[in-house]
Amino acid sequence: MYNQQSSGYYYNNPPPQGQYPPPQGYPPQGGGYGGYGGGGPAELPGSGWPQPSQGHYPPQNNNPYPQQGGHQSYGAPPPHSGYGAPPQGPPHGQYGAPPPQQYGGPPPQQYGAPPPQQYGTPQGTPQFAPPPGGGGPPTQPSLGYGPPQIIQWDAGPDAQALRAAMKGFGTNEKALIQVLANKDPLQVEAIKAAYSRLFNRNLEKDIKSETSSYFELGLVAIISGPLLHDVHLLHSAMDGPGTKEKVLNDVLLGRSNADMRAIKGMYQHTFNRSLEHDVKGDLSMKTERHFMIVLGACRAEDSAPVIPQAIDQDVMELYRATEGKMGTDEMLVCSILSTRNDNQIRAISRAYEQKFRRPLEEVIKSEFSGHMRDALLFQLRNAVDRFMHAATILEDAMAGMGTKDQLLVSRVVRYHWDRHALENIKGAYKQRYRKSLASRIRGETSGDYERLMVACVGE
């Protein structure tokens, strides 16, 4: 269960700033997934992947506004230094380092594909305006969400290995895992294209015919790529009676505007109807309005600075909408958490606790209920410490009586796309639960399903 240690606790009791190099074999890769690592030009496979910019917790001073990139880094190397290379001076936001000249610091380095055009166009408008000073360069789409790219990488050998694993009598499941578990989204697309070109066959159809159960589900999720996987998850979450709220939260909350537009465009292209239409049909009342703000894709870009006056204003608005009045102004809270970027939300969370001596997470827990409560907590926790949040929702898929296998598959595959973020998530998981993520997965799964999930997390 996610508790106070994951939110306000760290700000007053920060963990030590040790750095732990990742295991051999997992170089940092460009392109984030779902906000992990951001977007921007990525080097092609084989030429050396750039390292996403990862920040640290802010210095211990009286400044209530964390600087840009203020996430704790678990198990990943310090920013601006290659593995094994000495740091070139103290990075911003580390203990003892001089603070940047302005709140928010310089925009972080971006990774991913530059978007000359997006899938789809923005739809809808937020019910409340974003904070002032929300300009800056737009956040680029995560790897797999931008326009199709041709990469300088030969996918032929992998395509041939996959065909050999499924041809004839029996299936070589270990070969399927070995080929597919460690590829990035662009490599997966190249493998699918090579498979079709060399054998005039559809890789996804062949895998479905040769595998079954959650092993099949995991392989198909990888073959689909992050964008199409998201789209099909959303459709299945709203298809039939009931709604899988956790899936909606996983896919839609905390996403960049670019990724959100890509998801909406691909959903329209795949199912010939708008995502907004289907979400409205499955949610109701104020929760529906909350998600319409989210789908409006009007979040402050990651490069937008943390402005002290705007943070102070948001803190007072949140107080007046919750503890400071009889009843709760739910939509104002939803609007603030849906239209501010992660750095701004992190600053709001810290400033709120310093001003009112109560964590914002506790306020949300006491003032809200149901799906809206869960969605707001997801937005807050993801912004305050995205790696620890990812660790806790992975645990959530395994905790209790029985494993939520579909949720576990979707979450493991989602986080495996960005290896640099995954190393931090694994470090956060071990810090919180005192065991490795891989060992926990082994205890909840079996057979080829187990081997695929463990390979995806890199062990």
UniProtKB/TrEMBL annotation:
<feature type="compositionally biased region" description="Pro residues">
    <location>
        <begin position="97"/>
        <end position="117"/>
    </location>
</feature>
<protein>
    <recommendedName>
        <fullName>Annexin</fullName>
    </recommendedName>
</protein>
<dbReference type="GO" id="GO:0012506">
    <property type="term" value="C:vesicle membrane"/>
</dbReference>
<dbReference type="InterPro" id="IPR037104">
    <property type="entry name" value="Annexin_sf"/>
</dbReference>
<keyword id="KW-0041">Annexin</keyword>
<dbReference type="InterPro" id="IPR009117">
    <property type="entry name" value="ANX14"/>
</dbReference>
<dbReference type="GO" id="GO:0005634">
    <property type="term" value="C:nucleus"/>
</dbReference>
<dbReference type="GO" id="GO:0005544">
    <property type="term" value="F:calcium-dependent phospholipid binding"/>
</dbReference>
<feature type="compositionally biased region" description="Pro residues">
    <location>
        <begin position="13"/>
        <end position="26"/>
    </location>
</feature>
<feature type="compositionally biased region" description="Low complexity">
    <location>
        <begin position="54"/>
        <end position="71"/>
    </location>
</feature>
<feature type="compositionally biased region" description="Low complexity">
    <location>
        <begin position="118"/>
        <end position="127"/>
    </location>
</feature>
<comment type="similarity">
    <text>Belongs to the annexin family.</text>
</comment>
<feature type="compositionally biased region" description="Low complexity">
    <location>
        <begin position="82"/>
        <end position="96"/>
    </location>
</feature>
<dbReference type="Pfam" id="PF00191">
    <property type="entry name" value="Annexin"/>
</dbReference>
<keyword id="KW-0677">Repeat</keyword>
<feature type="compositionally biased region" description="Gly residues">
    <location>
        <begin position="28"/>
        <end position="41"/>
    </location>
</feature>
<keyword id="KW-0111">Calcium/phospholipid-binding</keyword>
<dbReference type="GO" id="GO:0005509">
    <property type="term" value="F:calcium ion binding"/>
</dbReference>
<dbReference type="InterPro" id="IPR018502">
    <property type="entry name" value="Annexin_repeat"/>
</dbReference>
<feature type="compositionally biased region" description="Pro residues">
    <location>
        <begin position="128"/>
        <end position="140"/>
    </location>
</feature>
<dbReference type="InterPro" id="IPR001464">
    <property type="entry name" value="Annexin"/>
</dbReference>
<feature type="region of interest" description="Disordered">
    <location>
        <begin position="1"/>
        <end position="149"/>
    </location>
</feature>
<feature type="compositionally biased region" description="Low complexity">
    <location>
        <begin position="1"/>
        <end position="12"/>
    </location>
</feature>
<keyword id="KW-0106">Calcium</keyword>
<dbReference type="InterPro" id="IPR018252">
    <property type="entry name" value="Annexin_repeat_CS"/>
</dbReference>
<dbReference type="GO" id="GO:0001786">
    <property type="term" value="F:phosphatidylserine binding"/>
</dbReference>
<dbReference type="GO" id="GO:0005886">
    <property type="term" value="C:plasma membrane"/>
</dbReference>
<dbReference type="GO" id="GO:0005737">
    <property type="term" value="C:cytoplasm"/>
</dbReference>
